Amino acid sequence: VQLQASGGGSVQAGGSLRLSCAASSTILRHGNVGWYRQRPGNQREMVALISVTGGTNYADFVKGRFTISRDNAKDTVYLQMDRLGPEDTAIYYCSVAFYTGQWSSVWGQGTLVTVSS
Predict the structure, then answer these.
(1) Phi and psi for 98 in degrees, rounded to 5?
(2) In the sheet where 17-23 sits, what is the strand order?
(3) Which sign does the torsion angle of CA 52, 105, 42, 110 carry?
(4) What is the longest distance spanned by two Cα atoms in the chain?
(5) pLDDT by residue (tens digit) across 69-94?
(6) Which of 33, 26, 109, 111 is closest to 73 using CA atoms?
(7) Which residues contact 2 (CB under 8 A, 6 or more apart)?
């Protein structure tokens, strides 16, 4: 199973980007998917989560600005990012956690988001 994160780029503050996380299989339909980020000089942190049933959870620093969603027909999870600020500059990663007798997780490669002031 492979995850492919895409959609990163460079934007000015106040702009928007939409990240996509696509899987090489249907694994995203059966797992809890999260977006994480790692800002320069910082540890990786959770940004947003979406469960198998569609429930969502957001880090306080993105509430009201970012929206996570899933399209099971396309085996893709999205992260819509609005009102971006320089503090959102980071490498963004997606991950899926799934249970098959025990919990396992798969991580995609990161996609770089750069926000200029």
Answers:
(1) -140, 155
(2) 3-6, 17-23, 76-81, 66-71
(3) negative
(4) 47
(5) 999 899 999 999 999 999 999 999 99
(6) 26
(7) 23, 24, 106, 108
Indicate the SS3 state at residue 15: coil
pLDDT at position 102 is 93
> 3-class DSSP state for residue 73?
helix
Do residues 59 and 91 touch, judged by C-beta distance below 8 A? no
Per-residue burial over 1-16, b if 16 or more Cβ lie within 10 Å, else e, is eebebebbeebeeeee
CB 11 within 8 A of CB 74: no
Residue range 54-58: average pLDDT?
Answer: 96
Q: What is the pLDDT of residue 27?
A: 86
**In the predicted model, what is the mean pLDDT of the chain?**
95
Tokens of 27: 């694994």
Residue 24, classed as helix, strand or coil, is coil
Give the span between the Cα atoms of 61 and 87, in whole angstroms: 10
Contact 56, 71 (CB under 8 A): no
